[in-house]
């Protein structure tokens, strides 16, 4: 049977308790939907020492180009306090026009709608002239080591190439049609360790208080602003997220102080240029004598988080116009093209093909009583179906 109904597709997916790293039956449920449509389905297990094995899914319909990829994840975050839910989190209960369940919007709902959209497209027009694939991971909400990155590498190694990708994460703040994500800010984190000399608080000249040093360095990280934003991005922003001394004694000057920070940065920086700017600021602040008159520069080390997320911006008109036009045709609303919010797996996909993100309304994601308006499932399916037709039409033109 063709999986043309997004509501029953989503119910089947929600009923699989696929909390990361458990597959929970969700990929099997998806495979059951895709097989009758003619997709060739591969289940790819990714392993890495120190992390749980993760099952992922790659499915392709067609052998020719152009090739459109839909990407997403079937894993979900834990339910939290199950007793606090109005309906059991893996029951897919419908009440008041909404379907309840963990993953309803983030993002089993997006997958359910895209499957229904492809099924309807095939039912009406036959197979598209080109290929459609699903790249679905079970490790987005967890460490994201055995997920999209490895699945992309696996597929690319066996010769898969894509022309465009749509990620079905929830992107709308209030209602369907608000927002397409066409890029994401980068993210970089680090930790600063200031080394002082321990001593008696009454004899500070015999000691070197690292608290004075860490305050100077932290100040320099936050002021002045890194930039004023760009045409497509909001200003880069750094937050000092913790300052730790852990000193239980008020009359002892401690030997060490540490601080951690995270910066979300726009396309006026790369992770590398930003690191250089941060080190330059810290070196200048280390020599500042405001809080440490007559002292040698602050002695500090900086440790960078190993895996920064790189900033990206998609400028592919066929992709953006097809999606934006489909949203307008179905909802009558013109979506905002945005680069706000946190990172997503799109940051990995952008290395292979142009990528945009559009899915459900994100309001209840990760919350107790995560739920989706049943009407939205029908609307999103309509948008995806129109998008598929327009994108292949565009590619053929
Ligand atoms: Zn998600």
From TrEMBL:
Q: In which pathway does it act?
A: Amino-acid biosynthesis; L-lysine biosynthesis via DAP pathway; LL-2,6-diaminopimelate from (S)-tetrahydrodipicolinate (succinylase route): step 3/3
The EC number of this protein is 3.5.1.18
Reactions it catalyzes: N-succinyl-(2S,6S)-2,6-diaminopimelate + H2O = (2S,6S)-2,6-diaminopimelate + succinate
- Active site (catalytic residues): 75, 140 (proton acceptor)
- Root EC class: hydrolase
Question: Which Pfam family, any one, appears in the UniProt record?
Answer: M20_dimer
Q: Where does Zn(2+) 2 bind?
A: 106, 141, 366
Binding residues annotated for Zn(2+) 1, in chain numbering? 73, 106, 169
Q: Keywords in UniProt for this one?
A: Amino-acid biosynthesis, Cobalt, Diaminopimelate biosynthesis, Hydrolase, Lysine biosynthesis, Metal-binding, Zinc
Q: Which domain of life is it from?
A: Bacteria
- Subunit (UniProt): Homodimer.
Q: Which family does it belong to?
A: Belongs to the peptidase M20A family. DapE subfamily.
UniProt xrefs under HAMAP family: DapE (MF_01690)
Name the record gives this protein: Succinyl-diaminopimelate desuccinylase
Q: Which organism is it from?
A: Sinorhizobium fredii (strain HH103)
Instruction: Recite the lineage of the species.
Output: Bacteria, Pseudomonadati, Pseudomonadota, Alphaproteobacteria, Hyphomicrobiales
């Amino acid at each position: 049977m063709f999986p043309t109904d997004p509501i029953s597709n989503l119910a089947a997916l929600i009923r699989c308790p696929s909390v990361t790293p458990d597959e929970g039956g969700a990929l099997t449920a998806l495979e059951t939907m895709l097989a009758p449509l003619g997709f060739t389905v591969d289940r790819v297990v990714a392993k890495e020492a120190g992390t749980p094995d993760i099952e992922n899914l790659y499915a392709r319909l067609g052998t020719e180009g152009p090739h459109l990829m839909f990407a997403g994840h079937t894993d979900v975050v834990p339910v939290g306090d199950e007793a606090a839910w109005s309906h059991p989190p893996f029951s897919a209960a419908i009440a008041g026009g909404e379907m309840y369940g963990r993953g309803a919007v983030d993002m089993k709902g997006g997958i359910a709608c895209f499957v229904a959209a492809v099924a309807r497209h095939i039912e009406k027009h036959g197979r598209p002239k080109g290929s459609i694939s699903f790249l679905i991971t079970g490790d987005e909400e967890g460490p994201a080591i055995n997920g999209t990155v490895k699945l992309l590498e696996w597929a690319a190694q066996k010769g898969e190439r894509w022309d465009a990708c749509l990620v079905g994460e929830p992107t709308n703040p209030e209602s369907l049609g608000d927002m397409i994500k066409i890029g994401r800010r980068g993210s970089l984190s680090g930790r600063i360790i200031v080394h002082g000399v321990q001593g008696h608080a009454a004899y500070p000249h015999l000691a070197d208080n690292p608290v004075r040093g860490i305050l100077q360095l932290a100040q320099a990280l936050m002021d002045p602003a890194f930039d004023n934003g760009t045409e497509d991005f909001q200003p880069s922003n750094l937050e000092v997220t913790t300052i730790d001394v852990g000193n239980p004694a008020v009359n002892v000057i401690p030997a060490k102080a540490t601080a951690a920070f995270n910066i979300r940065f726009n396309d006026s920086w790369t992770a590398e240029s930003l690191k250089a700017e941060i080190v330059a600021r810290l070196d200048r602040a280390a020599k500042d004598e405001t809080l440490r008159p007559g002292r040698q520069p602050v002695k500090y080390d900086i440790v960078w988080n190993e895996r920064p997320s790189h900033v990206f911006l998609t400028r592919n008109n066929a992709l953006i116009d097809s999606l934006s036009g489909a949203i307008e045709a179905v909802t009558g609303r013109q979506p905002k093209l945005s680069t706000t919010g946190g990172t997503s797996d799109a940051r990995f996909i952008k290395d292979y093909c142009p990528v945009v993100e559009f899915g459900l309304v994100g309001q209840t994601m990760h919350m107790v009583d995560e739920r989706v308006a049943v009407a939205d499932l029908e609307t999103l399916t309509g948008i995806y179906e129109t998008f598929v037709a327009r994108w292949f039409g565009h590619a053929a033109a």
